[in-house]
Design brief:
There is one protein chain. With 176 residues, the chain is of the alpha+beta class. The protein has one domain: Peptide Deformylase. The protein is 31% helix and 29% strand. The protein has three helices and seven strands, in the order H-E-E-E-E-E-E-E-H-H. Strand 6 and strand 7 form a beta hairpin. The longest helix has 24 residues. It is globular, with a radius of gyration of 16 Å. It starts with 24 loop residues before the first helix and ends with a helix.
């Protein structure tokens, strides 16, 4: 089931998420809903707070080549346990901040540890787009948006655009 994605500014996007204590069928269903929502958007990552759920859960799939099989990852309680000194810059966007992009500098490689949908501990080294995406999504779980990692002028400009977009969407819903 597709879920609505919260748009910035929304106070729920700025909260630190609670750890997932036990995997339940409800949480697995939420992960499935999040994958469906992410693919439909379309996006490469989605964190639980973006669909209004305060839980340390994210989904991602950075496979962009249509010839390659999708690689959906479901991460409960993801944690970045190591990061390279080397950095990379990616133009990031966010499903909660549609059509707004900015260059963000992050570690080029990270080691991530998480619990999969079956409760197994998983650890993986990630680089390139995968590393950027997982850092972006873990930031969401900590109440940080990519615009918090850019200069104040650009951040204010994007936030003003988002306030305007939310106002326009509210008017459209009122007319419908």
């Amino acid at each position: 089931m597709k879920r609505p994605i919260l748009l910035h500014p929304d106070p729920r996007l700025k909260k630190v998420c609670d750890p997932v204590a036990d995997l339940s069928d409800d949480l697995r269903a939420l992960a499935d809903d999040m994958l469906e929502t992410m693919y439909d958007a379309p996006g490469i990552g989605l964190a639980a707070p973006q669909v209004g759920v305060n839980a340390r859960l994210l989904v991602m799939d950075c496979v962009k080549d249509e010839e390659e099989a999708p690689r959906p990852l479901v991460m409960f309680n993801p944690e970045i346990v190591a990061a390279s000194d080397e950095t990379s810059v990616y133009e990031e966007g966010c499903l909660s901040i549609p059509e707004q992009y900015a260059d963000v500098t992050r570690p080029a490689e990270v080691t991530v540890r998480w619990m999969d949908r079956d409760g197994n501990a998983v650890q993986e080294d990630m680089a390139g787009l995968w590393a950027t995406c997982v850092q972006h999504e873990v930031d969401h779980l900590d109440g940080t948006l990519f615009i918090d990692r850019i200069g104040p002028m650009k951040r204010q400009m994007i936030t003003r655009r988002m306030v305007k977009l939310k106002r326009e969407r509210a008017k459209e819903r009122a007319r419908a």
